[in-house]
């Protein structure tokens, strides 16, 4: 097992990465401070892994919330189900919440923990590749609004992250690829050698080679932990983790939550951001081709949905947390391995990308 640390002073916490970690009761229980524990999970993950977690908690009073599965349920309405259970069972402020699932469950569980009695401890047990490499680390929690992705939320750090590689064996191929989209992001924004490693090792990841997967999770988490430690609340460098997300979130919101997976929308959005970076004169044609090729090899979509024209994209992108005074600001690439902070772009260039990229037939 590898242990990384997210250094945030009093809010610091470990990320445990390894195989069969759900069998190690102590890893979990050492981070629980009271008898009362709530596990939040969903209808897909519960039959697979809930009992394993419950087996570790025989000395605790445990309640469970099993939410329906899907991005379309990442809403305030479904968040209320968590509060209903916490209140029905009179959970106190020292109770712990465990989020067992992918990014949807992690974001919702974390937000519920941030809100309940103004904050109770919570633990992330991420069960998708995407959640292990990204969403479980860094404390962004929240829910969607029909008008915008993750628009209601809080920064709230977990007590620990337990990334058990063994649970990835039940993940389907489409979800594995979605996770790889966020892995590629780290190479693009800050670690060119990692991007090259991914080019060399992509097939091993797609074949679920355990060593390759563990390496990708560890290197991704190290990158994310460093960025979050430098800028917990996205005043500066943390915004680079949003590469491709202004376009990607527009796709998720505009096409209806759940029709594109988050990682798929980020893959398309990153190709659009790369195209725009080329139009700014920062990336070469060859760089953009290299980026698109890697996403395609990862079996990810790279072309935006035809249903969203440039006007609709711009309307959707106007609802983004990086915008200032209503102006769209994007993370672009100076090179493969170096991202910009949020920048405004000439509307003509943005429209050219929205009209041109991926629409050439
Ligand atoms: N907080 C952050 O920093 C952050 C970062 C990236 C993404 N996100 C959010 O995360 C969400 C996407 O997360 P995701 O890709 O994990 O999606 P998800 O949570 O919907 O999980 C994907 C699917 O995999 C299933 N699943 C989970 N674990 C499984 C397992 N071990 N075996 C079989 N099936 C399993 C789930 O039930 C679901 O059907 C989005 O809402 C996105 O906005 C947040
Ligand atoms: O942790 C971050 O910071 C990120 O931006 C990670 C992203 O992959 C993630 O999708 C995040 O939820 C997007 O943040 P948002 O603030 O644009 O909702
Ligand atoms: Zn993301």
UniProtKB/TrEMBL annotation:
Domain 3-dehydroquinate synthase N-terminal: 65-177
Record keyword Hydrolase present: no
GO molecular-function terms, A-Z: 3-dehydroquinate synthase activity; metal ion binding; nucleotide binding
Alphabetical list of Pfam families matching this protein: DHQ_synthase, DHQS_C
Cell compartments where the protein resides: Cytoplasm
Domain of life of the native organism: Bacteria
Residues binding NAD(+): 69-74, 103-107, 127-128, 140, 149
Domain 3-dehydroquinate synthase C-terminal, first and last residues per copy: 179-323
Protein name: 3-dehydroquinate synthase
Species the sequence originates in: Methylotuvimicrobium buryatense
């Amino acid at each position: 097992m590898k242990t990384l640390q997210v250094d945030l002073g009093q809010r610091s916490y470990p990320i445990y990465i390894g195989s069969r970690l759900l069998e190690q009761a102590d890893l979990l229980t050492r981070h629980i401070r009271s008898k009362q524990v709530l596990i939040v999970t969903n209808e897909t993950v519960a039959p697979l892994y809930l009992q394993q977690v419950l087996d570790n908690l025989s000395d605790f009073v445990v309640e469970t919330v099993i939410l329906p599965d899907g991005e379309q349920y990442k809403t305030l309405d479904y968040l209320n189900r968590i509060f209903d259970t916490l209140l029905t069972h009179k959970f106190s402020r020292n109770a712990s919440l465990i989020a067992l699932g992918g990014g949807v469950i992690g974001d919702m569980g974390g937000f519920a923990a941030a809100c309940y009695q103004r904050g109770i401890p919570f633990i992330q047990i991420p069960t998708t590749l995407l959640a292990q490499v990204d969403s479980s680390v860094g404390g962004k929690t929240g829910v969607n609004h029909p008008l915008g992705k993750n628009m209601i939320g809080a920064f709230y750090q977990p007590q620990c992250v337990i990334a058990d590689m063994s649970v990835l064996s039940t993940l389907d191929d489409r979800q594995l690829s979605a996770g790889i989209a966020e892995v590629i992001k780290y190479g693009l924004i800050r670690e060119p050698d990692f991007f090259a490693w991914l080019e060399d090792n992509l097939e091993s990841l797609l074949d679920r080679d355990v060593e390759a997967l563990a390496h990708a999770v560890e290197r991704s988490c190290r990158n994310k932990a460093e960025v979050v430690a430098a800028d917990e609340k996205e005043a500066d460098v943390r915004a680079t983790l949003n590469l491709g997300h202004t376009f990607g979130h527009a796709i998720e919101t505009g096409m209806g939550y759940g029709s594109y997976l988050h990682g798929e929308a980020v893959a398309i959005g990153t190709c659009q951001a790369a195209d725009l970076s080329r139009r700014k004169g920062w990336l070469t044609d060859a760089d953009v081709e290299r980026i698109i090729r890697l996403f395609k090899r990862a079996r990810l979509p790279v072309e935006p949905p035809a249903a969203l024209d440039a006007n609709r994209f711009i309307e959707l992108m106007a609802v983004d947390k990086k915008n200032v005074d209503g102006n769209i600001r994007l993370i672009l690439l100076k090179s493969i391995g170096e991202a910009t902070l949020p920048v405004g772009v000439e509307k003509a260039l943005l429209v050219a990308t929205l009209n041109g990229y991926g629409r050439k037939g």
